Amino acid sequence: MKTSELIYDWNRIHPASLRPSGRVLLNDETLRDGLQSPSVRDPSIQEKIHILHFMEALGINSLDLGLPGAGPRAVEHVEGLAREIVNHKMKIRANCAARTHENDIRPIAEIVQRTGLGIDAATFIGSSPIRRYTEGWTDDFLLETTEKAVKYTEDTSRCDAEMVKRLYSTAINCGARAIVICDTAGHATPMGAFALVQFVIEEVVKPSGEKIRVDWHGHCDRGLAIANSLAALVAGAECVHACALGLGERVGNTQMDQMLVNLKLMGIPPWAEQDLSKLKEYCQAVSRATGVPIPANYPVVGEDAFRTATGVHAAAVIKAYKKNNIELANAVYSGVPSHVFGLEQVIDIGPMSGKSNVLFWLEHRGLPATDEVVERIYQRAKASDHTLSEAEILECVEKAKA
Asked: Of 75, 119, 223, 323, which one's alpha carbon is 20 to 30 angstroms from that of 208?
């Protein structure tokens, strides 16, 4: 019997309207918006190129190369990434962030000329009433600026409907063929994200008569970034912007790795068929390059994601292994099958373990599981306040031999 036949999947008991209707695109903001976190280190160009290759391997559609208007280092890095894409004939498409100012847009055009790579200019401006009041911007100023350069507006999720309609309509009338709806402050809920995207599509995109791609760019201040992104896709957005490990200002952007996981498991094209076995390497590369550690309990790529030392859980996983069924072992106590992402279940030994943990640990490493060895390790674990390290377990093995 297939493992899938042993799971009643309520995730699939819903009308088709609650599922993205077509392909889903992903735009990686790790090397631009992700680096706006005050806690990150700006990686070297070599580290950024290394990360770029992981993006390509994971099938990510596009990336933000950076904001060259920020200065000479940013120009050097953006150009280096652009040349790498050209030299290796990569499929990933490039864009650059830019404020609505000639000094930001000109460097992008110059890099395009020097490298021969087509780079979209992702220009932005704040739009919400609170931002307009703080900046002293008039409605006319926003509209005039949008006519000149805007592709997406910041803080759309707190902007009034009339201004949302006027700004995006102006951008489309001036030639924009992709618009980005932004939850810059992490204000939206899934219901709000759905309502906003649906409003823009119904009130702006459809009446324009143009073929316009709608993107969603969200932040995670309420812990809802993934849920909001999925809601935006259901409402009709085609592309989600995200960062590895959810890097970014304050608590960060939508988590790219978690978007990939969910799109894969939901069977959303083209991700249903995408090889994601390098997902953990991608996250580890970003972690090393930026100095941001991956929490042990982080979904899928954290060290504890597929690790257990609990007796009941471990016993079930071990029984599945003994049936020679990897899929069963990876599903019996996990909602994410580790093998799909190039990973495996790990059975450890701690104060809540049973002897089955000890037997499996020893057998998995080809070590003799005599009664004395098993009992010594078991008693050590029961007296401990933590999961035993490999060194502690091997010390018990050696003492049993003595």
From this structure: 119
- State how far the Cα of 243 lies from the Cα of 289, in Å rounded to an integer: 14
The number of residues in the chain equals: 402
Beta strands in 127-245 (DSSP E): 152-154, 178-183, 213-218, 239-242
Strands 152-154 and 178-183 come out as parallel
Whether the Cβ atoms of residue 57 and residue 276 lie closer than 8 Å to each other: no
- CB 171 within 8 Å of CB 146: yes
Q: How far apart are the C-alpha atoms of 194 and 262, rounded to whole Å? A: 18
Say if residue 83 is exposed, middle or buried (CB neighbours under 10 Å; 0-12, 13-18, 19+). Answer: middle
CB atoms within 10 A of CB 256: 30
Q: Are strands 239-242 and 25-28 parallel, antiparallel or unpaired?
A: parallel
Task: Phi first, then psi: give them for residue 218, nearest 5 degrees.
Answer: -120, 160
User: What is the rounded distance in angstroms from the CA atom of residue 280 to the CA atom of residue 338?
Assistant: 11
* pLDDT per residue as tens digits for the range 140-181: 554 454 455 544 455 678 788 888 898 889 888 878 889 999
* Cα 167 from chain centroid (whole Å): 29
* pLDDT over 70 percentage in the chain: 92
Domains, the chain, ranges and CATH? 21-290 (3.20.20.70), 307-401 (no CATH)
pLDDT digits (tens, 9 = 90+) for 251-269: 999 999 999 999 999 999 9
Q: Contact, 180 vs 151, CB < 8 A?
A: yes
Looking at beta carbons, which pairs linking 197-201 to residues 24 or more positions away fall under 8 Å?
197/231, 197/232, 197/235, 197/236, 197/237, 198/235, 198/236, 199/161, 199/164, 200/164, 200/168, 201/235, 201/236
Phi, psi angles (nearest 5°) of residue 85: -65, -45
In angstroms, the Cα distances linking 189 to 28, 215, 298, 312 are 22, 17, 22, 37
